[in-house]
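Query structure, 129 tokens:
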């Protein structure tokens, strides 16, 4: 089992969120701004059931690679699930809850990377443009 960097862990969490149709997935690099953690991964779901499914997919997938969360909060409610991996903190929101707390605005100085679900043939087509 390969040890992942915090960046690789954040990107794997983003990829796992996509497996349950998570959307508006963003990785905020906080390393230079705060000692809280290196990265926030923020994803949205359309319903509480989907939020829980996204969080479970991330938890299960990262456990398979040997990473167990230090703490999980909010799994019962499904409005905002937080998975704390110390260097990477993952937030899975119900969309209205995400808009209310606006973490991207709160951490507005952080570099943000968007994770998109790109079809393999899209990548090939883009190369020819």
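Result returned for the query:
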């Amino acid at each position: 089992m390969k040890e992942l960097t915090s960046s690789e862990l954040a990107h794997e969490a983003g990829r796992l969120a996509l497996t349950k149709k998570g959307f508006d997935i963003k990785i905020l690099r906080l390393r230079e701004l705060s000692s809280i953690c290196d990265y926030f991964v923020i994803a949205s779901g359309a319903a509480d059931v989907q939020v829980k499914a996204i969080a479970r997919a991330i938890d299960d997938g990262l456990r398979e690679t040997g990473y167990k969360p230090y703490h999980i909060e909010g799994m019962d409610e499904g409005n905002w699930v937080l998975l704390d991996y110390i260097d990477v903190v993952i937030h899975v929101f119900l969309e209205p809850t995400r808009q209310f707390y606006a973490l991207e605005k709160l951490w507005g100085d952080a570099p943000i990377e968007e994770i998109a679900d790109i079809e393999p043939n899209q990548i090939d087509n883009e190369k020819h443009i």
